Amino acid sequence: MKNRIAVGMIGFGTVGAGVAKLLTGNAGPIRRRLGVPLDLVKIADLNITADRGVALPAGVLTTDAREVFEDTSLDIVIELIGGDDPAKRFLLDAIARGKHVVTANKALLAVHGEELYQAASKAGVDIGFEASVCGGIPVLRSLTEGLAANRILSLYGIVNGTSNFILTRMTEAGRPFQQVLAEAQKAGYAEANPTFDIAGIDAAHKLAILLNLAYGTPVNFKDLFVEGITGITPMDIAYATEFGYTIKLLAIAKVHDKDNEAPTEVEARVHPTMIPIDSPLARVGGVYNAIQVTGDAVGDIMLYGRGAGAMPTASAVVSDVMNIARNILTGARSRVPVSGFQIDQRRPLRIRPIEEISSLYYLRFMVLDRPGVLSRLSGILGAHDISISSVLQRGRKDGQTVPVVMTTHTAVERNVRASLKEIDALPSVSAPTTVVRIEGEDR
Q: Which of 59, 81, 113, 146 is the most buried (most CB within 10 A)?
């Protein structure tokens, strides 16, 4: 039996420093759980002079990543540099040399995951990526192991802390998007360039990974519908509250052929969503993340916690390292398939185009306050098979622009888009209609 597990790491930034702190500071408990030491013997980073707040033995740090994946003594390589290249090359090189790998690189996995998974399977090594979705929340292992006996019927996730912080602050303070974004950047919750977060791209990367594990399907990232939060205003949030909803950026996956042993189609989308104000997800505020999963056997469960940050993410990275270490020590290889499904049992699923989905809708029209406008809007919606559930019109200003807000019964997205194209072309409509999809019971 091996007397230690040797680990190397590429990337020594915020999360890398957290991993080093855990492996050194919690070395005792980790050894008690594994039975042997888990030794961090090599770390590669372009900057090895900055103080990361962790003491390391001489010779551990290097600026040459090849010293990590070419080191024959290493059992596991951790990649924490992010991005596409050279991260992908480093991982493939390590796998080709028979090393198990762990990564937190959600963007890489969302786009190139299949190539990495197949390479790991061919080489007979494990690949861990728990930290790629929701930081320290063990959602991926829950899908592949804890919920393995279930058919996953739906999955709703608040998976981006930056967007959740912004929407929470807009709701609490009634302040506009740009002001709250600046606050998030000042507090360190948003990057200087926050595009991936506020445009929904980061959440979509995570949804691609979740789809793979929940349904055993390869995912083409380009097939996912993605819409960000930049169009949400305090006015929409106030109206949502009046209707009994909260607005969250949700990653959504759900099947409709629920009685089939294996689904043939799945909805997969990321966009701002109104959810009932008393629902568990509506109570998830600030930078916290949460995933609500519905299984046919277990029913509804929710996983909640910090989705980012050095130590929560490091916790997930080290948990993967320890899981692989246990496999090494017992002689097991790929005990749990990389996606939770055996390779020959994975099936491509059709991702339903956004135009084909059915949903409830919130519609805010900015119209001139003139007689007949409301009936004209209602008539166009009705002509496209869209039934109105409720209407709010306040602040009458004869001849001036006022908001008219409606919620609909269940409607098909294609019909909604066709009706709004017609409505937005009306002379009495002064701005494009604001649309927010609603998840909940048709009232």
A: 113
